[in-house]
From TrEMBL:
PANTHER family: PARAOXONASE, PARAOXONASE-RELATED. Its EC number is 3.1.1.2. The keyword Disulfide bond applies. One of its GO terms (molecular function) is arylesterase activity. Its cofactor is Ca(2+). It comes from Amphiprion percula (Orange clownfish). This is Paraoxonase.
Amino acid sequence: MGKLGFISLLVAVLAVLFGERVYNLRKRLLATRELVKNHLPNCVLLKDLEHGTEDITILGDGLAFISAGLKYPGIPSSDEPGKIFVLDLKDSRMKPMELRMPRNFDLETFNPHGISLYTDPSDDAVYLFVVNHPHHKSQIEVFKFVEEELSLVHLKTIKHELLHSVNDIVAVGVDSFYATNDHYFENQFLKSYVEMLLCQPWGNVVYYSPTEVKEVSQGYYFANGINMSPDKRHIYVADVFDHTVHVFERKEDNALTRVKTVAVGSLVDNIEVDPETGDLWVGCHPNAWKLFFFDPNDPAGSEVIRIQNIHSDKPQVTQVYEDDGHVLIGSSVAATYGGKLLIGTVFHKALVCDLK
Ligand SMILES: [Ca+2]
Ligand SMILES: [Ca+2]
């Protein structure tokens, strides 16, 4: 074979490989799924939350904490720094309020992603753990919540080589947590393009405490939301590109043992757990191709799924809400309190509805 023939063959092989990878990615992102509407009653869009509310979690008294203004590679974002809001779901005005941030904290580069609350049983102090991406790096910020002043006191920044591409966390103590790494690489190009196209199970879950940091689970195509059962015995991890939620049992040494995997049929982002029923509420991307290749004329939709009786032989997976993107684009989280459903998005608005 001449040089030209060899080059032609090489180009043809690469084109076939590239085509196969794109086909695989389209399948993982449910690129051909049609978006429909399955709405709830009395929905209102929340004020001042127009540029992403990627993660939301609710305190026992109905105060929702909202991580706002995420900047994530490949996704539209505003130039404003990120913020933390609270919303009192007992107050019918549904008015989000921005939390006052401490002076000793770098607000300019604040880029909040997954969040988790921890209430210390010894004194009822409330701690907010925030995944932060200043300059697209990953670190965890630990704050103490001061309810009377609606402010946060910054306690510490946690960085570790195993916490290299963190998406979400679940706090299990005042300075310990589990975290998901959604990617293997830190480099933005490798992360956003090469890893996306290769789509290999290189994501993992890490346990962190001041005395021990270790990988506790691996093999995720894109590890995303993480949360815990009300009795604190089980950990739930979403694999967004595998359309599944994994259930683990926590061991004494904080290792995780796989119990089961539940198929969700949608791209699962963050997981919230109803403290009374133990139901999982998951914000999903019904067609994530439209999310990553954003076209305002053909927007990504939103979907909320509830998983009931997850520890039984037959967990029930039910769609509670879907929108075709004309109301809400790119839902990433859903949380309930007092008959209300609060839905947040990666870069769009936030919606609160009545549950039927
Ligand atoms: Ca979370
Ligand atoms: Ca997430």
